[in-house]
Amino acid sequence: MRKIFLCINLCMLSYIAATGQQVDRSLTDKIQALINQSGLEEVGVYVHHFAKNTKVEINADTIYPTASVVKIPIMCGLFDKINNGEIDYKTTLTYHDSLTYSKYDIVGCLKEGSEIALGKVILLMESTSDNTASLWCQVLAGGGKDINQWLADNGFKDTRVNSRTPGRQEFQNKYGWGQLTPREMARLLTMIREDKAVSPAASERMYRTLTNIYWDDRSLSQIPPYVQVASKQGFVTRSTTEVVLVNAPHGDYVFCIATNNEPVVDAEVRIGRQLIRDISNLLWNYYEPDYGWEPNKEALEKYMEY
Asked: Is residue 53 part of a domain?
């Protein structure tokens, strides 16, 4: 019996050495309990704490809709064009009504012939999740085909842009604008953090952009406002997605949470959003137990969007 246990332990050590990461069973159980409590059946979670080199994997390689999280790959594709000299980041663009996707967007409210800096369009795509800006950036990046080629070239197997992309109609019908796995999207944000996406200079610019987020009433509401966080949020009627990298005092950690086929309870009550808040709160307190900060309920209820 002792030999069997020794063999098992050696196998586990070999696995950890090969992957470089050890599964945090305690944290996995806590997150799974929150998922069970939510009642959602389709949830994927990936977490990696860099200093501890521990991870959580719950359906981490399952494909989910990106919703607006697809705007990170779009940004990477666009910066690839900028890095290659095909587009000047400092250029001024001219807006035309044919670009309008929604008048709810800031860019979509521009008048015909208005001029706007490319950098501002990129910022609005990520910060306010402006869809008109995002579709404009997708075109400037060469369309979904070029963005998907960049993703493939960088080792992303399942994360793709689907909408307005030749040959992706079947995937668009199933996943919408884009698709991801929690593991891959966490890896993409990690690449940007580590200056490995496109180029060190491009990564720095993209990371700064992702630390200026308007939609901070979800996972970000559970993290102290004076701690830097890079993130992107996405939601459609029955899917909620968020990827977050926290520059925490005791070590950075990244997580991606995605849901699919959520029951529609109420326009203002989204189970996926609350689950993301709950998991974000758990992670912060798990990794920073002595920080001594709690979310301000009044700030969430009175000043957040919804």
From this structure: yes
| DSSP code string of 101-141 | S-TTSSGGGPPTT-EEEHHHHHHHHHHT--HHHHHHHHHHT
- Residue 270 · residue 242 · CB < 8 Å: no
- Calculate helix-pair angle for 118-127, 200-210, nearest 10 degrees: 50
Q: What is the pLDDT of residue 5?
A: 38
Q: What is the three-class DSSP state of 210? A: helix
What is the pLDDT confidence band of residue 16, given thresholds at 50, 70 and 90? very low
* 293 residue type, one letter: W
Cβ count within 10 A of residue 103? 8
Residue 297, pLDDT score? 87
CA distances from 38 to 31, 182, 192 (A): 11, 19, 31
95-120 confidence digits (pLDDT tens): 999 999 988 899 999 999 999 999 99
Q: What is the chain's length?
A: 306
Question: Distance between CA atoms of 299 and 38, rounded to whole angstroms?
Answer: 23
Sheet with 22-23: list strands edge to edge: 22-23, 54-58, 43-49, 253-259, 239-246, 229-236
**CATH number, position 220:** 3.40.710.10
Residues 277 and 219 in one domain: yes
Strand intervals (E) in the chain: 22-23, 43-49, 54-58, 64-65, 92-94, 115-117, 160-161, 178-180, 229-236, 239-246, 253-259
My answer on whether 193 and 76 are in the same domain is no
The Cα–Cα gap between 283 and 80 comes to 33
Cβ pair 130, 106 in contact under 8 A:
yes
Of 1-15, 20-34, 117-131, the least confident: 1-15
Q: How far apart are CA 147 and CA 31, in angstroms?
A: 33
